[in-house]
Write a structure and sequence with these properties.
The protein contains 5 helices and 7 strands; from the N terminus they run E-E-E-E-H-H-E-H-H-H-E-E.
Length: 210
């Protein structure tokens, strides 16, 4: 518009393509058209399992008076002497987490075993499918194998149907209930498996601090 750039995509990745989105989720603003950003990342990525997760902070039980006092007493002047941005960020989080560790207890978060769009029927059939799989492995009976295969096909069909219905519901509610949509996006970004340790360029990444 009038040769002015209103929306920016800032990245240090060379292979980045920005184009107009042909299928936006909501009606476009003429001043801010929907953009589609594509990036290509080529890097070695190694995932390894981790036996235990770092508990999350339980802020409802935090000592906020002590937390505020400790934050106010941090000497941030040393940040002015740090010229490297990575070292400055490390200094910032080191002091922040030091205060949180001293004033806020931890709690263990139990991640749900199944996606939240799974119905009770799907979960029941998954357990039944696993039951007959183990039963056939022990007995070798064709009837147990047939029951397992039937349940497997049923579960695949029901999962696809439940997911499509959930996505359709999100699309219909996105203008009136955007929180549900962003909850879904956050859930998609979260890692629910036990592959929680990654190696990238020789460094191990295992939590939000990394």
């Amino acid at each position: 518009l009038q040769s002015k750039t209103l929306d920016l995509v800032i990245t240090n990745i060379e292979n980045t393509n920005v184009m107009h989105c042909s299928d936006p989720l909501v009606d476009e603003d003429s001043y801010h058209p929907a953009l589609e950003v594509g990036i290509v990342i080529s890097a070695p990525l190694v995932c390894r399992s981790r036996s235990n997760e770092i508990p999350s902070y339980c802020f409802e039980r935090a000592n906020f008076l002590e937390l505020y006092r400790s934050l106010a007493n941090i000497n941030w002047n040393n940040l002015r002497n740090i010229l490297d941005i990575n070292q400055a960020v490390e200094f910032f989080y080191e002091n922040l987490y030091k205060v949180l560790d001293a004033t806020c207890p931890r709690k263990k978060i139990r991640h749900p075993k199944f996606p939240f769009w799974f119905t009770s029927s799907i979960i029941h059939n998954i357990k039944q499918k696993d039951k007959f799989r183990k039963k056939f492995k022990h007995s070798g009976r064709q009837a147990d194998l047939d029951r397992f295969k039937n349940l497997r096909a049923l579960v695949k069909r029901d999962i696809k149907l439940a997911y499509n219905n959930y996505i359709l519901g999100l699309e219909n509610m996105i203008t009136s209930d955007s929180k549900t949509f962003w909850k879904f996006i956050k859930n998609k970004k979260s890692t629910k498996s036990n592959l929680l340790v990654m190696e990238y360029n020789g460094s191990q990444l295992s939590n939000g601090r990394d």
